[in-house]
Hints:
With 290 residues, chain A is mostly helical. Chain A has helices at 2-32, 39-87, 96-119, 143-165, 167-177, 179-184, 189-214, 222-236, 241-262, 269-281, and strands spanning 133-136, 139-142. Chain A has ten helices and two strands.
Amino acid sequence: MTLALQILIDGFAISALYALGATGFTLMFGVSGVLNLAHGGTMLVSAVVAWWVANQAGAYGGALAGLAAGLACAFVTYGLIVRPIQRSRAIPQEEKEIFVLTGTLLWGIMIQEAVAFFATTSPHTVRPLIAGVINLAGVRTPTNELLTAAICWAAIGVLWLLINRTQTGKALLAASINPRALTLLGYELSRIHLLVWTIYGVLAGVAGVLLGAFLGVSSDNAGTLTASAFSIVVLGGLGSVSGSLVAAYAVGYLETLTAYLVSPSLRTIPSLLLLVAVVYMRPQGLLGRR
Amino acid sequence: MRIVLACLVVLVLLSGLPFVASAYVLGLLTLAYYFGVFAMSWDLLFGFAGEVNFGPTFLIGLGAYGAGLLNSQAGWPVPACVAGGAVVAVLGGVLLALPALRLRGPYFGLVTLVAVLLLTQAVTIGSHWTGGEIGMSLPDVLSIDDSTNYWTALAFMGVSGLCLLLLSRSPVGLILQACGQDPVEAASLGFNVSKHKLAAFCVSALFSGLSGAMLVFYFGTVSPGTVIDVAVGVQVIIAAVLGGRRTIIGAAIGAVFLIVAGELLRPLGQLSTFVVSAIALAVILFFPDGLLGYLLHRTSRADGPPP
Amino acid sequence: MKTLVLASCALLASAATTFAADPIKIAIISENSAISGIAIPNAAQVAADEINAKGGVDGRLIELVLYDDHNSAADAVRAFQRASSQDHAHAVIASYTSEVALALEPWAGRLKLPFITPGAASDELGKRIHGDYDHLKYAFHGYLASAFLAQSVCDAAKDLLVDQLHMKTAVILSEDAAWTTPLDAGYEACLPKIGIQVLDHLRVNPDTTDFTPIYNRIEAKKPDVMITGISHVGVQPTVQWANQQVPIPMFGISSQATSSTFWKDTNGQAEGVILQLVASDTVATTLKTLPFAQAYFKRFGVSPAYTGYTTYDEVYIIADAIHRAGGTDPDKMVAALEKTDWQGTVGRMRFFGKDDPFTHALIYGKDDVSGLVVQWHDGKQVPVWPLNLPGVGKMVFPPFVKIGAAAAK
């Protein structure tokens, strides 16, 4: 019984973290059509900055600095790499996607190497915002883990409110369906893009800081983080926020169950196999539109 | 035709290097030549069939481990192992491509990436045979002489490059390009788009697998870090894009450039990867046609493939 | 930046010294972005500068040539080849990763270039040299083989865990890597001999980031202690151990924990971790230990990781061997290296011989290199073993670790 509860709680926390990371990624694709392969790098930067600032300014100061760093990184990605490619006249339209992919991939590598240079490849952990453990029906869980899940859901909740209840949010949704029609209605697409990158930066920043506190992050992880978000997003359906949530929980629980019941070393295999199966049988993902 | 002649001249010149260059330079270029074949195979798929393969190392790794295992477990002679490795790569390529080619854009890319991850897991789980993360040493090597290895690699790259180049310029190559750039139009003209793309995938797999197999017999060892790691795949992609997509030859140039640049930047220590990536990024942003593409556009419009 | 300046200096120096006596070139290959890796070139620099300040070796100055191998065997092999054919190095000090060192061994033989690893631990290193002595004699294993690391941990466990804390059961937690296979075998053999029963043995993937299921599995077995064998991972399992308040203490090998930056990287959650190492900046293992640690700290602002001590000693050992060999002829250097009897920072350093099972590995023993055990407490590494060490302290555990139950039995 305790084992089942342990799996339930652990799975919940890690899935929430996956969900937050994937949500930003899928929103970026849905609205701007950009698959940001520097996603892992952005989360890495947030975590490392949070760690470093926390040493001087305490846990909260660190977390805020990490968030700011994530946002800054997102803006640099947009301004220096994605936007120039999207506006470039030398690249044919149908190839822009490939170039954005390659460009963000290279940028992600640069981030990873820069972090390794300044902070070594050793993992860094962000000081937990709330230390200590809570005993839930015999299962001892770090308070910070529960806080992580809570913050993830709060962020996702705010995002949902933003998209479904505000004018700006509806514009975002519309932009993901039919950008040209949106311009006819008088919306500036460039403002929409900027808004999406801002939201993305905040989501990735929060995810990075939380990941740093929960598990710790090293420059070697950047690629895996991107691949993981990518997989979850495709599983859920590119562009679908609710799809990412469902997929994140599916993957999170699959991994946790495997780690507890089979072996920790094999934890990623079932989710990889699920991904392969879904991509072959239902390529638009669980909740995606074709 | 001018390009082919130019390449032949360059190849002849390069074959004279062992008489003047040090063993170290030869070793570096040998590696670069094998990488060149990786990149050229990738360009066939990307530049012509229009499919971004995020996991070229799936094919390379299959060829490498296929050949390696045939040598270490079954004791086959080197040429048989190389051929065997290529066959494994093509089989793997077909298995991957058949379902994957039904997918568009980012989904295809993702599946190729997942294929690499699964191959890595397979190597780790089968570590009893494959040596896992550490890799395995092979009883045979191509040769211990640097010059022999260099000429082998150069010849291999030359022949592969020629095959791929001629293929790309043949009627089949043109059809492939059409399938890649506008599949709807190509289909309406009566061409079987998926059959052509599958064929392109097989050719790409064949050359990637061959090159992977040759590479392990050059090193005498095979490990995930050298032939399967996603980082290696990224280097292949960067080399091809850097050199100039859709030129085949550009990919080889890009590969040589990357490997040599990485070496020249050695004094920078840890930052060498950073600088190389930054340079590649700059090239992509400012010279999207890549090094060769840029040169081709500057000299003549009639020679290169239409932009 | 350091390496750029160093490379330029090296270039200038090599130009200048063509008119003076030929410098002795030692190639240093390691991963500069890892804590245990950067200690190697740093410590080598400290040693080289000291030797050169005293006039070098028989009038020849030591010149270091640095390479970053990014912890990749392929890059390390390329660097090794370059060191030999391009830079004409006379000796190589390389890597702390067994996989890399094992890949370099055959190349030392092919290129006849003496090579020492200051940090890798796999028994295979010495065993392979023993099995193919004529080809591989150019390779030296300048660190304790895993079998001896296990012995060292067991010897300490006997005094500390069994005699003092009356512990009876343990779970082995190690990463899945080349160096831990013999280490774990060693643990499983020696722990029962001192009265500790091994309840379970977990080998974790070095890429693991989430240790929660692993700690839950361990806790379910209710052992008195976790005996560790970790190097590629360190920060994450330690932080998660503290965050989850796992009530079982950690004791054993944890390479990342040997460096002073570990305290910062874990935000102080390394409190209570007990680890074995060959030297620490708080204990005068020999008269050379603390002066070196202080010189290193003064120059680089952190204490050296474990690889720093052995690298520092091995630069001296190479210099001494060249002096005794009368030159840099590889075969003469190998013969001289085999006769090494050097008082280093880690103890008395001698290598096993051709007929010993771990040929060319460091000899382990109370009067040779014995290692010591320290515990992280309040930001410092407090020595806790051997018990007769000056300044030895008592073990203190964080409040969430439950020792009482075992001690009360």
